[in-house]
Amino acid sequence: MPSQPTIARIWRGRTRPDVADSYEAYLKTDGIPPLEKTALGVQLFREDRAHESWFTTISYWPDLDSMTAFTRGEPTKVHHLDRDPEFLIELPEFIQIHRIVIDRQGLR
Question: In CATH, what number is assigned to the domain containing residue 60?
Answer without folding.
Answer: 3.30.70.100
